[in-house]
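Consider the tokenized backbone below.
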């Protein structure tokens, strides 16, 4: 059970929050629990989600690339909740093949056949693991696959954004409300990484 209460949906009257919920429902099929948890601090929730929306909609990365980054970062950080969220968006919201999404969640870049996506995901995982280790060559590889300065900044911010959601949902133990298949895949990946 979550460590702070989930705000009941019938108590949400703010039109800005209702608009966010409509967008989320379109991408995920329903409003996930973490949004109700975040409503304990509504002003920040709206600002944070506004920032996330800009990262998702106004940069150089395609929505499918963003969701791959979300899955990779969340898996690396051991956040089953967020892994479930990004797998759901890629599978349900963006109509990716379910078996492909499962394979990517389990195997990461080993299943990618696109050089651009591979470079993006590898950079994201490296930034998440150790930003001090990023080199000029890492950034140049992103340029070689078509990212400009805006895209490089967007990608780096996405890693931080996703990691912050990972920490929130893990620390506050958000009640898992995605398909169990995504949770099981993430738990298996975490166990394999611990071996």
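A designed sequence for it:
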């Amino acid at each position: 059970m979550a460590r702070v209460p989930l705000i009941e949906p019938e108590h949400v009257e703010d039109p800005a929050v209702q608009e966010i919920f409509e967008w989320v429902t379109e991408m995920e099929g329903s409003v996930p629990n973490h949004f109700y948890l975040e409503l304990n601090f509504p002003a920040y929730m709206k600002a944070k989600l506004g920032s996330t929306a800009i990262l998702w909609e106004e940069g150089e990365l395609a929505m499918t690339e963003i969701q791959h980054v979300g899955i990779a970062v969340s898996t690396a950080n051991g956040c089953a909740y967020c892994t479930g969220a990004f797998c759901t968006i890629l599978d349900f919201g963006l109509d990716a093949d379910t078996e492909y999404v499962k394979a990517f969640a389990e195997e990461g870049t080993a299943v990618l056949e696109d050089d651009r996506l591979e470079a993006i995901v590898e950079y994201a995982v490296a930034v998440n693991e150790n930003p001090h280790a990023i080199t000029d060559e890492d950034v140049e590889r992103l340029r070689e696959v078509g990212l400009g300065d805006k895209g490089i900044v967007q990608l780096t911010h996405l890693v931080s954004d996703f990691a912050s959601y990972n920490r929130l949902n893990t620390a506050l133990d958000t009640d898992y409300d995605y398909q169990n298949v995504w949770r099981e895949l993430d738990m298996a990946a975490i166990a394999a990484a611990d071996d």
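The chain has a mean pLDDT of 91.
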